[in-house]
Amino acid sequence: MTAGRTVAGRPLGDWRVDAVDVHAFEVPTDGPEGKEQDGTLEWDSTTMVLVRVHAGGRTGLGYTYGDVSAASFVASKLAPVVEGQAVASPPALWERMGQQIRNAGRPGLGAMAVSAVDVALWDLKARLLDLPLVQLLPAHHDRVPVYGSGGFTNYSLDRLADQVGGWVEQGIPRVKLKTSREPERDPQRLSAVRKAVGDEPEIFTDANGALGRKEALYWARRFHDEWDVRWFEEPVSSADLEGLRMLRESGPGRLEIAAGEYAYTTRDFVNLVDGPAVDCLQADVTRCGGITGVLEVAGLAAAQHLDLSAHCAPALSAHAFCAVRRLRHLEYFHDHVRVEQLVFDGTLSPAGGALRPDTGRPGLGLDVKWADAEPYRVYGTRPA
Question: Span 135-367: which CATH code?
Answer without folding.
Answer: 3.20.20.120
